[in-house]
Amino acid sequence: MKLLLSSALILVAAAMCLVARSHPQSSAEKYSWMIDRKTHKLKQVSAGRGVPTYTHVGFPIEQTTNYAKHPDHGVPGCGPGYDPTLRQHMIATPTSITTTVGTDVTLRYDASEICQGQGFKNAQGVLSPDPRAPDNPNFNIGTADWQVGEIQSLPREWGIITLPGGYAQAGTYTITIKVMATCVDAGKPCEHTWGTTVSVPVTVN
């Protein structure tokens, strides 16, 4: 009886393993969204080494600088959250990176104050999704240029980006992140477009 029970358990475990292996990956696991350097249009690129990824898992909206200042509502109007003349820009962490060839490079960016909590649209006139709604990968609100391959498209004004496998050659690089949005306040009403940029120097040994 014990032998039969053990055999049955082994068969069940094997079947579960086969099901797990045959389960298809999600689109987010299979692809990254990039911006073609020539056409400047969004395109899907198969995920893998050297293809940047985006997530905000582990970096919820509650941890952003704008939420810390305005947790309940945005600032009325369409004024900018950043003033380049005062050296006010989005935040990137870390502010500089020293790494080695072939090592993943990861950083957090936070441009959540760009519209001070008001709604906003991207360059195509598409309204941003709710901060707690699922990401829309083909909604482009910003870019990250790793100086390798295509330019990464960013679907949120904050998040965590990674270059799997890092840089293939030693040297100095600069990761440039840009976010641009048209702030919208239906109560005023008003619309105004603002942008913010941050650069992170990278030394690869």
Question: How would you describe this structure to a colleague?
Answer:
By secondary structure, the chain is of the alpha+beta class. It has one domain (23-204). The chain has 3 helices and 12 strands. The chain has helices at 2-22, 27-30, 65-69, and strands spanning 31-35, 42-46, 53-55, 91-93, 97-99, 105-110, 119-121, 142-145, 151-154, 158-163, 171-185, 190-204. Strands 1, 2, 5, 7, 8, 9, 11 and 12 form an 8-stranded mixed β-sheet that branches. A hairpin with a 4-residue loop joins strand 11 (171-185) and strand 12. The longest helix has 21 residues, at 2-22. The N and C termini lie far apart (62 Å). Residues 1-28 have low confidence and may be disordered.
